[in-house]
Design brief:
Layout (H helix, E strand, L loop, with lengths): L1 H7 L4 H28 L1 H4 L9 H4 L4 H21 L2 H19 L7 H20 L6 H24 L14 H25 L8 H23 L7 H7 L1 H16 L1
Length: about 260
């Protein structure tokens, strides 16, 4: 949600408060979705090497208690949506509808499963624009979508390589070779959309040479490093852990953010 504020350099108190409010809404929505998924997938998660330690799958949190927890989260989310205005909160509602479909059906459909996950993160970026009353940049949204597709397909490739296809039915429609093709296409699309965003968008500060060169270089390095981790190393199964646990990726990300902050 903060990505539009970063690219637009909107750090006044009103904008920061709006972004924090949007972040809180989407955090509640995400917690609701993940809790529902954990309830529905608890039997399958028990066969997964890492997911079996989740509270519901491990039995640490009982199913009735999990449903109660989900109900409380939904009530809090409903209050937050009501306090906002529909033109601003519709991405949250769209996210919930999309993920309900994902929980009951779409997560079992190859390729559609990855698109659904990526669309959820794109809706987050869109909400970031709406709460700032700013026109969304289609190129930034496309960058977010394709980058999330890259991470989703990378996660599926790692699961295929590890032979853990039993817990995710959609993996029967993938192969390591297909995942490699999808990763390359997503990477090219992400890099291209990111570059066009910098060249064409007003957020680029009129096409600042420093902004374009440094951010594109940082993005290319981060992309290469992620592919190295995925293909040569043994990472990529947990995108969040991969992105936050690798020092070179963190440095590239910090450089990318720093350029927007100082230009």
């Amino acid at each position: 949600m903060a990505l539009p504020a970063l690219t637009l350099s909107r750090w006044d108190p009103g904008s920061v408060a709006a972004v924090l409010w949007a972040t809180a809404l989407f955090t509640l929505a995400s917690v609701a979705v993940y809790t529902l998924n954990d309830i529905l997938d608890r039997e399958r998660d028990r066969r997964h090497p890492s997911k079996r330690y989740r509270p519901i799958a491990s039995g640490e949190l009982g199913v009735p208690a999990a449903w109660c927890y989900l109900g409380v989260v939904c009530v809090l989310l409903g209050i937050g949506v009501v306090l906002g205005s529909l033109p601003r909160t519709w991405p949250v509602l769209a996210y919930l509808v999309l993920n309900l479909a994902y929980s009951f059906r779409l997560k079992h459909v190859s390729i559609v499963d990855a698109f659904t996950v990526a669309a959820g993160f794109t809706l987050r970026a869109l909400l970031g624009y709406l709460v700032l009353d700013a026109a969304p940049s289609p190129w930034l949204l496309l960058t977010v979508l394709s980058a999330c597709l890259l991470l989703s397909f990378g996660k599926r490739r790692r699961e295929l390589a590890a032979g853990s296809s039993g817990h995710r039915p959609a993996l029967v429609g993938y192969s390591v070779q297909l995942a490699d093709y999808l990763i390359l296409v997503s990477a090219a699309l992400a890099l291209g959309a990111h570059t066009i965003f910098l060249l064409a968008g007003p957020e680029s500060g009129g096409g600042s040479t420093a902004l374009i060169v440094v951010t594109v270089a940082a993005a290319v390095f981060a992309l290469f490093r992620y592919l190295q981790i995925l293909v040569v190393g043994s990472g990529g199964g947990d995108p969040v852990r991969t992105l936050l646990g690798d020092q070179p990726l963190l440095i590239a990300g910090a450089l990318w953010v720093a350029v927007f902050l100082v230009t």
